[in-house]
UniProtKB/TrEMBL annotation, chains A, B:
Residues 48-125 form the D-glutamate N-acetyltransferase-like N-terminal domain. This is DUF1611 domain-containing protein. InterPro entries: DgcN-like, DgcN-like_C, DgcN-like_N, P-loop_NTPase. Transmembrane segments: none annotated. Residues 131-328 form the D-glutamate N-acetyltransferase-like C-terminal domain. It comes from Thalassomonas viridans. NCBIfam families: DgcN. Pfam families: DUF1611 (PF07755), DUF1611_N (PF17396).
Amino acid sequence: MHIASPYLLFIGDATDQFAIKMARGVADWRPELCIGEYSIDGCTVTTGLEKLDIRQAATRGAKSFVLGFANSGGVLDKKWLPYILEALDNGMDIVSGLHDKLSDFPEVAAKAKAVNRQLLDIRHPKAEFITGTGVKRSGKRLLTVGTDCSVGKMYTSLSLEKSMKKAGIDVDFRATGQCGILIAGTGVAIDCVISDFLSGASESLSPDNSEDHWDIIEGQGSLSHPAFAGVSLGLLHGSQPDALVICHDLNRDHMRGLPQSQVPSIEETIKLNLEAAKLTNPNVRVAGIAVNTSSVSVEEGKTICARLSEQFSLPCVDPVRDSADSIVAALV
Amino acid sequence: MHIASPYLLFIGDATDQFAIKMARGVADWRPELCIGEYSIDGCTVTTGLEKLDIRQAATRGAKSFVLGFANSGGVLDKKWLPYILEALDNGMDIVSGLHDKLSDFPEVAAKAKAVNRQLLDIRHPKAEFITGTGVKRSGKRLLTVGTDCSVGKMYTSLSLEKSMKKAGIDVDFRATGQCGILIAGTGVAIDCVISDFLSGASESLSPDNSEDHWDIIEGQGSLSHPAFAGVSLGLLHGSQPDALVICHDLNRDHMRGLPQSQVPSIEETIKLNLEAAKLTNPNVRVAGIAVNTSSVSVEEGKTICARLSEQFSLPCVDPVRDSADSIVAALV
């Protein structure tokens, strides 16, 4: 699967920033892939990109119409179908990270066929995977792992990629979720893979490479999350990481979505992940800690990172407010 | 999903016992569900059940025609289609644990519709699952876990169920693989569930129950298997077991299918599983050890079990050669 760029990011009538997470992710990290955003009456948020309608975007060469909004359940509301059909008529592929499949809407499927354009349901892996082999692959790999879900593993991974590029390192960001796939233009939505192939799909995501090449693999879930630890473990084993970066969000009272579940400490998270990772790479080590400090002041954030850095004898940064340069410097 | 009994077990022209694992499992553990076996020219193995052809079995009331053979890849060979069509014509549902779906063969789908019979692809879960919640359920649960795949977790689970029934305990065997599903008549093939729903599907398998009721949950894979540990962890977290039984096969040089991977010790297996299980049930404990001693003499097997029992201060049995009575006695 390859998503053609440039993208027109469709954010509909969204009224909060969380609802346009997909669009924001790609606008933040790959503005060069985006030609603009398209919103309709009632929308109160923006990615900051230029506002264009479908015809304008097509004239400027837009190749993909990206559904940049999300909702719990991943439902594709029928009210968006006219916009999707218009984008197809204007020569664009359609990209969706929703659970509902574009191809399950007969009028969309028929139109895409008629105008010879693709429907890309990036949450639904199309590849045929094999079960994991555990066989060591060449090249180097870093996986971001978290104390919880949604603590900033994708942003940390992209920040690490940016720092590595700046340092002249041969590096690829490997996407494992729909937003990351949009950013990378390719990848595997690992939580949508049949369980039997979890490790195998994860292995296929970072194939053999040259010895000094780094894959920065986007982590998923958390080994301490009662709902998603299985996904995290399969990804960890298949990734065979040489290095882990521990991701943490200061502002978390309980595990995401589970009020009765405690967030583990950074120390526990390091221990759990190192022990599990050794099964497929005995030489794994922790390269650093990435903290989302957005809930406190910049100054307070810096103090917290400095304290954690001393406590664990590891580089510790907020990879969005600062950069991941210090983690990369210590790693290579 | 519910599989109607009695079954006619179709073993084709199989020539080794491993190839008819599905048929043997149900013949060994639920002979009362089986009306007989049906083999064709060239078959050199048997389940030990009475040999019947399709018409004879139908006359005696067979409700389901079970494909009792397996192969790597789970391919449904077209040479079996005439037998499947004949069974449909004789009023039976068709049950398959293969990867290939019965419903993907147009002539089979058409015939099943015409005669109003079901095609049950028991490896492909049909239920809609939700993601895990981690919320504690009432009743008691035991999960069998293994040092490796295919060490006897299903046979151990069934042996435990048998011992509990004998002791007058209210108990259900909960199947998580296609052979177990055939035996229980229901269940979820957990390694065929979409990864995101691993824990949620596992939770749904052993719902709230009365306080003194036990669910004996069939384990899958091993936390130490590089390909399948994610499945094992999701099942472990979703099962919320009060008790674990550690399953081990004496005759194992390396992890199944992976010559470079070492089999973990029983000690490591206990440690790994207890640590992980505590996330969703802090009161979890190990109830015993089940060893497949079939590679040594009965006497030697007994000596090994006695030694392990002493080493770990736990009941240790071969649940097929002996029974699981001592584990159940110590547990309740």
